[in-house]
Amino acid sequence: MNPRAMCIECLSRQPSALLEAALWLAAEHDSTLQPALVLEQFGELQRQIDAALPSLPPQELAQPLLRQLSHQGFRQDDSPLLMPRVALLHRVLQWRCGQPLSLAIIALELARRLGIALQGINFPGYFLLRVPGADHLLDPCSGRRLYPQDQRELLLRTQGANAKLQAGYLQVASDQNMLQRLSRNLRELHTQADDYLAALKDAERVLQLGEPSAPDHLARAHLLEQLECPQAARFDLQRAMLLTEDESLRYQLAQRLRELQQSPAIH
Known about the structure:
InterPro entries: SirB1_N, TPR-like_helical_dom_sf. Belongs to the UPF0162 family. Keywords: Coiled coil. This is Protein SirB1 N-terminal domain-containing protein. By secondary structure, the protein is mainly alpha-helical. The chain has two domains: 168 residues, C8orf32 fold (Roll), CATH 3.10.620; 51 residues, no CATH class. It is built from twelve helices and six strands. The strands form three sheets. It has a two-stranded parallel sheet with strand order 1-2. The protein is globular.
């Protein structure tokens, strides 16, 4: 199987194999990556974390687990210009530096292996974690507890002054949700790096992994136009028109489609 097919196969297992799926995702961008070897090396990190955890009931070990990851050097990359490696799991494991989502995937894999209950939370702008039933969320980069007021402050910081905390922002993310969000992150990072072919792989994976949005189709259309394939972008522009409720955007897309219709075909 190719890396994309292997990624999807990992997600179809019961239970799914989140970290392995993320490694196969990364293998689309690095042909030298061997997920089986990285998983074998991951076992050593698991043993180190397990040995350092305090003797507490499993339901109380999520925060100590995250703190031990921090002690091991895992941290958020706060560089002004992020590179794709912050979302490629083999690079995150190598450099111990990444985005909240990539660090959360590592924590979730360790938690599953060690029998610690932990869930991913699809918070906008900053992926979070939660122990089922807890009255707080956890920062995957530090283990800090985030109560509702902290969550509001984080939302304002990442989404702007008009953002309001909503119940939908606290929903548990499935493994497929996480891989789709990771693909969106990589799509943006590769686009910022002007690597449009790599970004197109991510954009296509986003559409394959779950229900796409109008912005997802617009992102792929933009990449296709950057790669001088404007006619191929028509499908995504049409899908975006169907999915959006923004009348102004619909008008702009209709205008763009008319321009493409009138453009001479290049043979």
